[in-house]
What does this fold into?
Amino acid sequence: MSKELKRSLVGAVGLLAVAVLLAATWVALSGASIGETQAVREVVLEARDVAFNADNPTIEARPGERLRIVVRNTDPGVVHSVTIPGLTEDVVHVEYGEQVSLEVTMPASGDFEYVCPQHAPKMKGKLVVSER
Ligand SMILES: [Cu+2]
It folds into this structure.
């Protein structure tokens, strides 16, 4: 085997090793990000006429599930908010024409309420966490 052939063989093996390493890294990274996207479920609520989606629908969730509650405010001149007492201390406010989100991980089980504190009697719905 000539010196030159040996040198190019060594180079090829080196390149192959780098390629395998890059591929393994890519698989590891993309696997992680796919897992994260699947774990968050988005629930969209429209705040209008001092109600969520007109009738404050019951949200059903599974234990450990991560929920992203998105609130769109289409109530001219009114500021709304959303929080889930017992699940989060966060209260997010949303101006007319804006949209905000609140992310919460569900506990093992329980009955909760999502609520707009400043319009609580009219703007609250159930959030039920259970295995179905
Ligand atoms: Cu409100």
About this structure: Residues 47, 80, 116, 118-119, 123 surround copper (II) ion (CB under 6 Å). The CA atoms of residues 15 and 21 lie 10 Å apart.
